[in-house]
Amino acid sequence: MEWVLAEALLKQTQDPRVLLRTLCRGEASAERVETLHFLLQRLENETARGVVDALPEAAREVAAGYLVPLLRGPRARPAGAPDSNPPARPRWRVLRAAGAALRSCARLAGGSSLAATLAEEVLRDLLAVGPAPGAEVGAEAAVEVLTAVGPCLRPREDGPLLERVAQAALSLALAGDGEAAALAAGQLLPELGRSGGAALWAVWGGLLAPGGPGRVGPQLLVLSALAERLLPAPGEREAGPDARRSVRFWAVVQAGLARAGDALTRKRARYLLRRAVEVSAEQAADCTCGSREGNGPSLFWWSENKKDELLKFWENYILILETLEGNQMHVIKPVLPKLNNLFEYAVSEENGRWLFHPSWHMCIYKRMFESENKILTKEGVSHFLEHYETKVLPFSPEFSEFIIGPLMDALSETSLYSRSPGQPIGSGSPLGLKLERFLVTYISLLPKELKSSFLFKFIQKMTSRHWCAVPILFLSKALASVPRCKALGPDGLLALRDVLQCTMITHQILLRGAAQCYLLQTAMNLVDVEKVSVSDISAFLMSLRQEESLGRGTSLWTELCDWLHVNESCFGRSSGCSPVGLQEKCSLNAYVKNLVQEYIKSSAWETGESYWMPDWFEAKLVALMTLLAVDVDGMRNQDSEKQRTQSILRTFLDPLLDVLAKLGTNAYMPLPKTDRCLQLLVKLLHTCPVKGSSTEADEVFTLLQDLVVSTTESISKFLLRRLTMNELSSVSDLDCCHLYLQVLTELTDLHLKVGWKRGNPLWRVVSALEIASVQYLQDTDRAQELTQGRQIQRVVSMAALATVCGATDQELELQLDPLDAGPTERFLASLPLNQMLQKPHPEDQSSCFEESSSRGWGKIASQYIHDQWVCLSFLLKKYHSLIPASEGDLLEPILPAVQRPARTLRSALSALTVLPAEHVLPVFHCMKLLVPKLLASSESVCIEAFDMAWRIISLSNTQLIFWPNLKAFVRFVFDTEVLAVAAEIKGQAYFKIKEDELVSTSTTRYYVNSQQHRVKNRIWQILLLLSPRFDQNFLSRIIDKIFQAGFINNQASIKYYIEWIIILILHKFPQFLPKFWSYFSYGEENLKTSICTFLSVLPHLDIIIQNVPEKKHILKQALVTVLQWGFSHNFSVRLYALVALKKIWGMCKTLQVEELDALTSVIEFSLNQVENVHGAGNARKNWQRIQDHFFFAAFHPLKDYCLETIFYILPRLSGLVEDEWISTDKFARFTDIPSHTGCLCSSSPTRLHQLKPGDWAQQDAGFNLGETANQSEWADVQKKIIPWKDNVPDLDLELEFQDRAAKLGKSINRLIVVASLIDKPTNLGGLCRTCEVFGASVLVVGNLQCVHNKQFQHLSVSAEQWLPLVEVKPPELMDYLQQKKVEGYTVIGVEQTARSAALTQYCFPEKSLLLLGNEREGIPANLIQQLDICVEIPQQGIIRSLNVHVSGALLIWEYTRQQLCGQGGTPA
């Protein structure tokens, strides 16, 4: 058609130059520029035949004056053209036509002078393009010009210019992601490459230059575009590079093969690999590429003597890579054995060396590890670990790098460590065990000189990211299993320490503790003790949390002591040794003795006035190492007497004891020294007790107690002075106050253990501290103005008073006036509760360190209120008997806080509004004492206390806060006295406590085995267990809630429990049946599939009416109800209704209910129809499955009512996680379960316990997941559309192809469908039929003989007779596509790439060519370069691809729809 147009134009004028000038005027539309191109192309042909004189001058004028400015955009608009930029959508079409026209101009102009001039000019523009707006368009235009004139340049004469163009194009292709980069890589570089010579070498050198661009995607784009030049077939080779011999080339290919998230890049890499193998096989010549390391196996080699083996290896290799693209395990698993074969091919049986470079195998594993399918990732990791364990492979540095890199990255995924189906609870993770065996095997086989560096890198990798608790646990366990070897020095120990510090912060406590234990064992197994000192070991041990892992008396502590004992003489010299032993290695005892001395020693900086609390780290270190040294010495001298232990302990602690003994008398001792000693004392008392055993049996702790008790008087005097003599006056001093009160508490506990005596000096200090604190608080209450020092001392006094109250509460002998209310009690009872401390101005404005204190005033104020409630809790507990039930008319109470409980409870509510969650425990304790007394008289306040306390629980965001708060909440809300009073008055509190909300109004969907599901499951289990105790009165209040629970989105196990409890209730109380029937009449719009819960109850109607004398009326009601739901549109509802109908109708026939004879024919016909349904479709399968379901086939609501069914069988059959399968032996110790609960038997007497979980599980689809509510034409039937007779007014379905047979080959549709790459006749036949139906202009196939195939004809149903078919073989596709692009067609590929356009967003041009890929490989990488755009079909499912015929049909229909609706155009 275009050729005819050009011919007609030439006949209208004698001078073509006039016609060219005419076309160069006016708006530069796509149609005008395309017409100009066709005319120039026609003139080229005429000139070649000598028909028309050469038009070099006219061609130069068109090129320079019109086409080049047009391509360069509005900055250089053609002369005479209107001042308007072409719209964005047809812009690409204009550029395409202008580029083709420019190439024709260069040929018509003769020679290369015009091409060289244009190339020079545009190249300057291209190099000058920056990040300015419109730069992308300018670069795109420059590439179009260079693509057009590049083939006209001469390789020899224009060699330097070609080289510069190639370098600029390569830089653009590798640096950008826009259209210009794509054009440079897909069009310009291939054109330059075809010219060979300097341009090709310039591109090749730029791609592989050391330190050049490292972007794999763009590099592979360029390489695949130049594949024909870099990997030429035999007979095509010119003097050019051979990519097969380049190490850098294969490194880029390997990087592309494993590239995650970029399917197109992987396809290009596979294409290059396949072409290299094919070229090598065709050339039949040996070829070798070097190795990365220089002495390892080649990255690629070819030998004609081993051609068959090499072809087999690469065929399997590429097959595995292509299969992995599917991401479907059922497709991938059968191919994995070929991966084992690859290893067999790759290792020589003669010398055990690698024949193929191991990095090729790593590409496959890396691709599996980085898959978005976690099942595939787990399979890949397991396969790698298993294979290396079973087959010993030669050592390769790549393996070590791969383990530390991609493998460890994959192992960071927690889901990989889950148990396999069927594994018993408590068994280890299969992957974890494989990892352990693999690491042991691999490290054992490593050369001795490489073990240290590998383990060090492995441990460093564990610090390079934030690991979850589960992966770090199994990695640590695997490391701990490595056999002992001297592999880690100080750096390795430091790396292990970094693992503890950096990756243990937020993990779960139990898993974190286990990981710490394994890491300590790793250190003991792998550290070279001759390279590390005791100081290094102690610093490492400080990273462990003693309360989680290294507790004294544990097996790990004993193992550590034994290791220290065995290696004590081998450790390197410690920097902490005394000068006397510098030539000798420092022993553990010498190190600890020196450590204590250095810790106690005062430093010069301690004499200043500014003072900060010493860090606790040093005290923890000294205490830990001291106790370790004592226990190691005891291990060394097992037969020694107690005197030896006492002697070594005193040797270590003499400096500490000396300071503690002088605390009470030496007032000039530096405070940092005294506080450090007290810190060490606290840490010793915390660390020394043996975990899990009596302290009296521990000789070391007994001796430590005796030593500390001997210094009690001195310490207590010091504490009294510091706490009462106004020495604590700054905010930073509050840390010291906390230390002193902690020491006081420890001393009190210590004396309580050894026996308390009233003459004890500590008793006198406690008494004096109490009196002084009360006196100071009373004095400050009367003060007019409080300075900062007074406020701080007030906080100190209240904290001291709280500590005294806490200690007094533990020991009655400490209570000064146990019966009468003394001054302290009166003062505490009269305290203004919740009084906030006003932040005062500091007395000394120069005290700059106050502003940087770590404790804010808000924390100080909340701690003050907390201490008030600690004291009040002690007071309420002591005078609990004086708390009245109501305040009454008591005018002047002696103890106001006790004798006015309502006011105190309201103050407690106010305290909860200001205190943080970590400070509310004493308030909860007070509530526990007040609520039972006030529940009858002040119920509303008590209910408010319940609500407020629960809100506080929900705000507790850490485990250390949440669980203590929850425990206190349960103790005061569910206190026996509270429950008794609530049950007696039966007010609002009674129903709030006793009746939990069974029905949630939330519509949020929760998932199977989620925390919410498991909690809800436990609740219904308890209700089911207690159901025999429910009386009719109680049930009448909750029966509606139980029924309404059936309408909620519940998981299968919850639905079974609801149905079961409904059956049991109706069996025991048939009077609730009318209410049960009423729930069937809520209306289908509200019920949907939730009605299945109620229909599931009816198959057990025989159990429900077992004790009902008159059954016929109930059966009639049941039949009417079931028949109504048997006609539901929802398939699941119909199935449940039919199951119920079958069971109820059987009962009717057994009881011979004559009133229902009229329904016999209808019911019998319905049941026969469903029983005899034809075919093997889903309907028949589902009907059989639901009848075989355990709830209807094997379950008996009465006989199976036992502990085993409730807690073990039902959770197992309904798919709950194994943790929820509670076996009956867990109830063995509960001997007080009453017999009248109905659970006399612990195991089920029926065959229910023999069943296995089936594939039918009730799933509530929710209110929005059922069938569409309003289906106006649900009864439509299938019909065949006859396009030329169909007059349906719907524009989307209107296909107007009248007289198609008469217009064969002249369809109004201009769509070309290219199917040359498709192999299967069925797909070709289906496409032929689709193209004919929607009026495609032509279908291109690879071989016209396919139309004679019976499978093709079966699918095409004679469509090939009405549709033009063209044969284009796959090797000819490149030229065919280029020709169609010249004709103005847009080449569209159906492919998923990073730049793909969604089908729903793409607007098809009228002249569209649709290229369909191969069924398995898709579109080859070399043809992808020819695509103008890739279009992908949006998907919602898991399967990643559609059948090629289906994909093509979807795009053909979308093209047709847009053309019919007038939406077709040109995409942006």
The share of residues in helices is 55-70%
Shape: globular
Largest sheet: 7 strands, parallel
Structural class: mainly alpha
C-alpha Rg (nearest Å): 44 Å
Mean pLDDT: 78
Amino-to-carboxy terminus distance: 26 Å
Number of helices: 63
Q: In percent terms, what proportion of residues is strand?
A: under 5%
| Low-pLDDT sequence parts | 75-89, 576-584, 844-854, 996-1004, 1235-1239, 1255-1307
**How are the strands ordered across the major sheet?**
5-4-3-8-6-9-7
According to DSSP, the number of beta strands is 9
- Assembly classification: single chain
Give a written overview of the molecule.
- By secondary structure, the protein is mainly alpha-helical.
- Helices cover 57% and strands 2% of the residues.
- A 7-stranded parallel sheet has the order 5-4-3-8-6-9-7. The protein has a two-stranded antiparallel sheet with strand order 1-2.
- Strand 4 (1338-1341), helix 60 and strand 5 (1365-1367) form a beta-alpha-beta unit.
- Helix 36 runs parallel beside helix 38 (857-878) and helix 41 runs parallel beside helix 43.
- It is globular, with a radius of gyration of 44 Å.
- The protein starts with a helix and ends in an 8-residue tail after the last helix.
